[in-house]
Predict the structure.
Amino acid sequence: YAMNCLMKKNSSCHCGSVQLILTMPNGLEKIRRCNCSICSRKNAVVASVKVANLEVVKGKEFLTKYTFNTHTAKHYFCSKCGIYTHHQRRSDPSEYGVNIACIEGISIEDYLHVGYDDGKNNHPSDISAESK
């Protein structure tokens, strides 16, 4: 089916050791930045893909996982060049947040306008935990 080719995007770290294929049937979805403690430091613009729609096709052995606090979110980066490629989301573990600057053909300058979610003060997981 020819449309499948259009839905798949290549993504990689800076040195090329880690390569991903992202299946994005609706293009970039849920584009955002976040001001939480880790996201504010990496300042990446991210989009979401379902966990099943991210495939590590090269360099799984070079991916390093970082977790903190609740250890729900899992942040992945290349152990060779240090580039953050993706993370399993704390607010929705069925999705990965992907660094759109790693996606082939993306011009990061086109995403300067992307605003910030307030993950520092109003993280969806903290809000739902408080209401229980």
Helices lie at 3-7, 37-42, 124-130. Strands lie at 8-12, 19-23, 33-34, 46-50, 54-58, 63-66, 74-78, 84-88, 95-99, 116-117. The longest helix spans residues 124-130. The first strand starts at residue 8 and ends at 12.
